[in-house]
Design brief:
The complex is a heterodimer of chains A (about 650) and B (about 350). A five-stranded parallel sheet of chain A has the order 10-7-6-18-29. In chain A, strands 20-27-21-22-23 form a five-stranded parallel sheet. Chain A has a four-stranded parallel sheet with strand order 2-1-3-4, sandwiched between helices. Chain A is globular, with a radius of gyration of 31 Å. Helix content of chain A is about 25%, strand content about 25%. Chain A is built from 16 helices and 34 strands. Chain A is an alpha/beta fold. In chain A, helix 10 links the parallel strand 21 and strand 22. Chain B is an alpha/beta fold. Chain B folds into two domains: about 190 residues, no CATH class; about 150 residues, no CATH class. Chain B is about 35% helix and about 10% strand. Chain B has 13 helices and eight strands. A five-stranded mixed sheet of chain B has the order 2-1-3-4-8, sandwiched between helices. In chain B, strand 3, helix 3 and strand 4 form a beta-alpha-beta unit. Chain B is globular. The chains are: A alpha/beta (about 650), B alpha/beta (about 350). The interface between A and B is medium-sized, with 23 and 24 residues. The complex binds flavin-adenine dinucleotide (FAD) and iron/sulfur cluster (2 copies).
Amino acid sequence: MTKKRTGVFVCHCGSNIAATVDVAAVAAAMAGEESVVCARDYVYMCSDPGQNSVIQAIKDNQLDSVVVSCCSPNLHEKTFRENAKAAGLNDFTCEIANIREQCSWVHKDRAKATAKAIRISLSAVKRVSRNLALEPIGIGVTRRVLVVGGGIAGIQASLDLANSGFEVVLVEKNATIGGHMIQLSETFPTLDCSQCILSPKMVEITRHPKITLMTSSEVQEVTGYVGNFRAKILKKATYVDPDKCKICDDCAKVCPVVVPNQYDLGISARRAIYIPFAQAIPASYTLDESSCLGLNPVVCGKCKDVCEAGAIDYDMQSRTVTEEIGAIVVATGFDLYSQDHLGEYGHLENAVDGLQFERMCSASGPTKGKVLRPSDHKEPKDVVFIQCVGSRDPARHCSYCSKICCMYTAKHARLYKHHVPDGRAYVFYIDIRSGGKGYEEFVQRTMEDDETLYLRGRVSKIYEDNGKIRVYGNDTLSGQNVEIEADMVVLALAMQPSAGTAEIAKTLKIGRDKDGFLQEAHPKLRPVESVTAGIFLAGAAQGPKDIPETVSQASAAAAKVVTLLSQPRLIRSPTVARVRSRLCTGCEMCVDACPYDAIHLENGKAVVNDVLCEGCGTCSATCVRAAIEVKNATPLQIQEMIGAVLSL
Amino acid sequence: MINLQELRTRARDLLTKGEVRAVVGYRRGSRGMAAEPVVITRPEEAAQLVWDPSCVHNLALYLVEDRKLLKHRRQTPDKPIAIVAKGCDARAIVVLLQENYFKREEVYILGVSCEETGVFSDQKLMRRFGVNSQALTDARFDGTDYVVTSAEGEQRCAAREVMAERCLECRQPFPKVNDVVLGEEKARTLEAPFAALGRFEQTANTQVARWDFWKRQFDRCIRCFACRSVCPMCYCEECIVDSITFTVAPDTTAEEKANRVRWIQRSATGSENIGYHMTRALHLAGRCIDCGECERVCPVHIPLRLLNTKLERDAREKFGYEPGASIEVASLVSSFRDDDPNDFIR
Ligand SMILES: Cc1cc2nc3c(=O)[nH]c(=O)nc-3n(C[C@H](O)[C@H](O)[C@H](O)COP(=O)(O)OP(=O)(O)OC[C@H]3O[C@@H](n4cnc5c(N)ncnc54)[C@H](O)[C@@H]3O)c2cc1C
Ligand code: SF4
Ligand code: SF4
């Protein structure tokens, strides 16, 4: 090998590195290396003068490779590779030695930290000396987007994308879009009607020429990679043609089947053929196969007989549609924590959950906006609202704060008082978390204007007694035990990822966090990106959040998609796996291990698809024969890097 | 015990009808009753075949040797090769099939069930009778005891006294995957699985004690590579912990030769020996089917089964994985399930 001419640039990062690491000593130690022809330190290497000095040094010293000892490559690998390129080198002749996150930030002893920074830098010098000059892989882009989930998050993202000129396929598993927001009555902090602000957006979805809406549909399989995904979507038979349905309700009138209506969380009933609610989109009846007597004119067939529009077709078949898309937005939302987990709290007849209460308050809901308790349809005069049910309880339930319950409980108490002015509202809470524009004022008004009694403490006991619910609790502020004889209790249940989240995460190969919500790529800097390139997150699927936050995230995800799909060609990193064919025995272990399905066998030997490969190195760690390695991170490079780290 | 005549007839018929190109089996060795591996290609040679408790060798190794030879000669035979396979040998073949080393139709598995007997441990024979299998002229199992014949005449002992340790612990003495099988599937539980490992962990019950133990063991290793040579799973052309096996092709450049990775020095010193054995053990995780051959052939008696069965037990307990149980499933180290335990990640 001809002698390398490497330059090493050690950054102080202000005092981030320099306070703990003797940066001049690192530069001096590197200057002593045989292949290093220039080594220097500078206060902010990433600043404009810093970058210029790197470019100038490459030219002045005819460097053929560069090591920058600075922060994580996540932050500035790209920056300095651009510098190398600007100076006429190949991008991949530049490597980063991370002496900040992996050294100065985690150590105190200056002498030891300096010695470690020297070893880290030396290992990068060794690595870069064997780097190959690689050319980035360019790929085409499909300028269409798949949005999964038709709640407010999915709706907002779809509209933003469609208005930016991209074609959108919106897939919703239910018979209508709208998600949980369409079930709400009024919304905090302004108490405007949820339907009034959401319905126009739902209608816009159906009217938009760039949006294809698929309801009663599920994403079954996604293959491909950023810019070039292929999704298989199952469109389930609804047995009613939405284009022909006139929403006359004739069919439901004759249907003999009565089942609980899930859109009203069971507090109303519907027929087997039904429309979820008046504003449903698509505006059409739908036939629920599981409760219908048999989709068979011999057994029943009443609805088909009565439908003048001829919209009902018992022979309609489910079908699978394949869509080519370039990016995916996942907005699969949340579900309420199940009362099954609550033990004694759970499933009391007059204890409703927050969504049931919303339906009661809603003018279009089952009680036409009257607050009536389930057991006898009487107006409750004493209502206890319990916050944090299932939240913030690592021992028994969810450890996290569901974030919105303080606010919607305050809203519920106010709505109740507006509906039943002579009623008494009590709220049990741990703390009130009302950060947000106008939120604290909203809660104050609940306490003051609407005279709600806030009791700070957990409920200790709750049971049904003679048509009432007895609630025992402790008011930690007054130090007194409290006992309330309530007519109705409203439980602010925790938010959890919606039922199919685990499955969709698996289908899309994106991660989930410890609580099961979809995992963002970086909690601060990449909050709307999933860990898989080209797949973005929006709404409550990523973590508990209210509508304003959901909408912001949806628009942010849409903007990210626009950024991605506006590029003429996508650049994939060329640091991909390479098979040393001679050694490969075709055992297929790497094929099974590759998380990106990037490897297949050809004539009994492994072959890597450069476009699919993410360069993660899983294959290389799996192959016992060392027959597959990642470019610029070969076993030889790794061995020499280990040697450098262990040396001195 | 299986009917030896039937084994010979089967082998002869396969060769006579030209269904296979050869049969790998055992024949009487040059001394005493001790069996040795043999590859026969002519029907009349079938009469040489034997089956008794001295058939210790894992013959699957010869399927690997056969493949390597065929590759070297650039031959693609149109007929399978037959192999006499005990339970453990058959499990080894399953792993080779799982790893696509050859195709199912390229091998004809003449399964033999060990039933109650298993195979001898020469060390145990020495301890019990003062002679090894080369000094025995006959050995049979009478339903309860072993009856061995030597210069001393006929002697009896309980099977467990002379049976190889892995046979005592064997959980599958019957070759499940086979083309034909002789003998019956009989349950045999002389010792609980992983019993020897359990005993070891009881004595060396701290990390320090175990490290001391293994350091002493590996200090003795002379790196003769007998364990690797006898192992059917060690079929790599280039062993990553033995740079001398670096394979050179016409297109190998001088630079590639100079830059081959030397993870481990050639000298047989403690640290290098540990590097070799640990790497081998990890490369056998989920692949080792506990035929115990490495331990048997080790000239300095390093108890390698303790290492390999430790990984096997972990695989079973943590991942519900049984090496050699199925051709179809993905290998242990290449498969991942959402519910895999990850409590070892700290
Ligand atoms: C009782 C209550 C009261 C609230 N009140 C307020 C309030 O007053 N103000 C406020 O700002 N916020 C309020 N919220 C919060 C608000 O409901 C959420 O912020 C919002 O609904 C989140 O929207 P989303 O689109 O992320 O999820 P969701 O509304 O849950 O929508 C998700 C959609 O995705 C669909 N879906 C799920 N999985 C799949 C799949 N695999 N394939 C296809 N489709 C799928 C679902 O069917 C659903 O339509 C309240 C919440 C509750 C529980
Ligand atoms: S794991 Fe190694 S030997 Fe097996 S197929 Fe992949 S590259 Fe080839
Ligand atoms: S480095 Fe290997 S395992 Fe990782 S994506 Fe590429 S081929 Fe797959």
